[in-house]
Amino acid sequence: xxxxxxxxxxxxxxxxxxxxxxxxxxxxxxxxxxxxxxxxxxxxxxxxxxxxxxxxxxxxxxxxxxxxxxxxxxxxxxxxxxxxxxxxxxxxxxxxxxxxxxxxxxxxxx
Length: 110
Known about the structure:
mainly alpha
C-alpha cells in the first residue's frame, strides 16, 4: 500500500497502535506522567522525521497470523504488526528494548 512507502526524509516509522500501547503503559503513572506521555505523542505525530502509519484490517490480520505462528513466544499483536511493517519497508534496525525483535532478526538499537 502507499502507506508503506517510506519517504526518504523520514528517519523513524511507527504505528498508531504502538502509540496507544505507550499511552496505556504511561496511564497509571499519575497526572504528570500522563501529561508528559501525551506531549511526547504530540511531538512524534508532528515530527517531519517520523512517519506514523494508521494500519488497516489487512495489517491487523497479518499481525494475527504471525501472532498465531509464534504461540511459543511472548510477542504482542502490536509487535507482530510492527515486525511485518518493518519487513515490508526493509527496516532492519528497530528503536526498542524489546528482545522479541532480535529473535526475528532485527537489530535492536536500545
